[in-house]
């Protein structure tokens, strides 16, 4: 039961949201859990430890990972039925749910904190200077755009007054700033250690401006949770095993991150992110649903105009699989 990983989603599954979850609603193999994830980098030591150590196999579940090319693919993949669940920022899910696009729930988390930054070209050192400038994001409702809107609003800048560019994946957006094809970019904090050398300014960190903002929630189709209760519990239990192991074995965690990033464990690119995750406890070892952070997120989205009203978390959160998994890991 070694986890399987596919690198790219077929284009055919990228259906436009609005078709609902009726497409591809078959439950598939009840002992398999298929999850869509974004490509990790310096955070791989935490996000892939369960896979690396074989914890899913030990828990008796076959996990198949489908690697998404960008955040904009996550919810369409879930809506189409290509995957049982996705790792995605809950903000995009709340926005989609307000439109009635998805029958799904937040069932856990892989990274409850957000190591994120706004990068800008030389001469721009403050978020307020980004008024009427260009910014590389992914999709209008994806995490890069959502967190940028919130951070800009905190500084009195309207996101509507900016030119938004679809800059592709995380590294692509950062490289666009380096190349000078955009004034700024919203991307993970992975690139902070190299920004000065690249001639790029780190204008703001999410952990400073919106410290309670969550990064990755696990969002699952409700029909798949109902059809495969053992698979989802065992998947979450294996995830918890991996997170706890990563915290307890920092050297191995940095080595795994370095292997995935193609560098050494002593590289500042690796050590910066590891220290940030550990120091701010950005990964919950229990893969929990943090309602306080989700409420904080929904409030920010309402204030920034991306939601008309706060979502009903009673309908959009299902903590039962995580509680069952927690009981499995703490007998």
Can you put this structure into words, describing what you see?
The chain is of the alpha/beta class. The protein folds into two domains: 4-113 and 213-329, D-Maltodextrin-Binding Protein, domain 2, CATH 3.40.190.10; 116-209, D-Maltodextrin-Binding Protein, domain 2. 41% of the residues lie in helices and 18% in strands. It is built from 16 helices and eleven strands. The protein has helices at 44-47, 49-52, 55-59, 74-80, 90-98, 143-154, 170-179, 192-195, 206-209, 222-227, 229-248, 250-261, 268-280, 291-303, 313-316, 320-329; strands at 4-6, 32-38, 62-68, 85-88, 104-111, 116-120, 134-137, 163-166, 184-188, 201-205, 216-221. The strands form two sheets. It has a six-stranded mixed β-sheet, sandwiched between helices. Strands 8-7-9-6-10 form a five-stranded mixed β-sheet, with helices on both faces. The protein is globular and about 55 Å long. Residues 8-27 have low confidence and may be disordered. Belongs to the bacterial solute-binding protein SsuA/TauA family. It comes from Actinomadura darangshiensis. It holds the Pfam family NMT1.
């Amino acid at each position: 039961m070694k986890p399987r990983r596919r690198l790219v989603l077929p284009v055919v599954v990228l259906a436009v949201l609005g078709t609902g979850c009726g497409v591809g609603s078959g439950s598939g193999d009840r002992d398999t859990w298929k999850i869509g994830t974004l490509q990790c980098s310096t955070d791989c030591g935490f996000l892939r430890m369960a896979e690396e150590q074989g914890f899913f196999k030990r828990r008796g579940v076959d996990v198949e990972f489908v690697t998404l090319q960008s955040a904009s693919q996550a919810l369409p993949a879930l809506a189409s039925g290509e995957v049982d669940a996705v790792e995605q920022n809950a903000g995009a899910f709340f926005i989609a749910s307000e439109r009635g696009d998805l029958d799904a729930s937040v069932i856990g988390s892989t990274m409850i904190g957000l190591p994120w930054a706004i990068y800008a070209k030389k001469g721009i050192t403050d978020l307020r200077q980004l008024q009427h400038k260009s910014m590389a994001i992914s999709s209008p409702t994806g995490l890069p755009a959502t967190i940028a809107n919130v951070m800009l609003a905190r500084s009195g800048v309207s996101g509507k007054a900016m030119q938004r560019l679809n800059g592709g994946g995380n590294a692509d957006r950062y490289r666009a700033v380096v190349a000078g094809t955009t004034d700024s970019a919203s991307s993970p904090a992975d690139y902070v250690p190299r920004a000065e050398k690249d001639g790029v300014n780190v204008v703001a960190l999410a952990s400073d401006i919106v410290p309670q903002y969550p990064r990755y929630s696990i969002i699952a189709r409700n029909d798949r949770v109902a059809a495969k209760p053992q698979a989802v519990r065992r998947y979450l239990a294996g995830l918890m095993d991996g997170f706890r192991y990563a915290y307890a074995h920092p050297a191995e965690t940095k080595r795994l991150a370095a292997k995935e990033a193609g560098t050494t464990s002593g590289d500042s690119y690796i050590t910066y992110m590891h220290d940030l995750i550990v120091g701010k406890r950005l990964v919950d070892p229990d893969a929990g649903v943090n309602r306080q952070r989700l409420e904080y997120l929904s409030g920010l989205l309402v204030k920034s105009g991306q939601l008309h009203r706060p979502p009903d978390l009673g309908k959009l959160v299902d903590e039962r699989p995580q509680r069952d998994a927690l009981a499995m890991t703490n007998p």
